[in-house]
Amino acid sequence: MEEGERSPLLSQETAGQKPLSVHSPPTAGCLDPAPWEDQVDAWGCSCCPPETKCQALRGTPGKGPAPSLSTGSSCIKYLIFFSNFLFSLLGLLALAIGLWGLAVKGSLGSDLGGPLPVDPMLGLTLGGLVVSTVSLAGCLGALCENSCLLHGFSGGILAFLVLEALAGALVVALWGPLQDSLEHTLRVAIVHYQDDADLRFLLDQVQLGLKCCGAASYQDWQQNLYFNCSSPGVQACSLPASCCIDPREDGASVNDQCGFGVLGLDADAAQRVVHLEGCG
Length: 280
Hints:
Layout: H1 8-13, H2 34-43, H3 52-58, H4 71-107, H5 120-144, H6 147-173, H7 175-191, H8 197-210, H9 267-270
Helix pairs in contact: 4-5, 5-6
């Protein structure tokens, strides 16, 4: 074939392509990003396509290769990653504890329909599942720069903030009825104190944390079948150890007998041993 003449097949293959120059960036092995860009436009998010490296090498026409992340952007990226990684571990830990608690209670044949409307272990399980899911979305989204996961993470955080604001507004608006409901709930918990282990644990934690005893006063424990002074049991006229001012009595373990016989004392003698104020 004479010089200057082109093969028809070669002409068809090179038609529509720009000639390569010594300044052209390497594009060997790069696929056409158009199909992926169509998919990105359809879903509205970027999911780390395999052609990212090629697009970075090509850069924007007329502007050269795409710049890399700045130091500040990298710091923010890894800060989001590590903070969400920590919350993911905490959420998974809560999920594991909740599942373990449900399994143990199921093996012991515990009654899930007791005085509490919701099993605390079930609430812990659901809370751990939600926290771990949202945190993992933020963790992986920051690491992979995946806008789909980051949008999901932002939506979860926004929903949490909205629910928190609504809960705060309801507490302020319904403060009076909530106080009455809380006092009624405490009285019911006192009556069923010995019937449910979860209820007993929650009420003990409330009394220890708030340094209080009973709903309105320590005399509310007279409503309990085991603690009232007419009971034939050994706990008659007594109070739980969580009512005591110093339940450990400077020891390593809780003294369960620190409240024995306190309901039979007058207020002056009782106030040296237990908290007289109620939690309601």
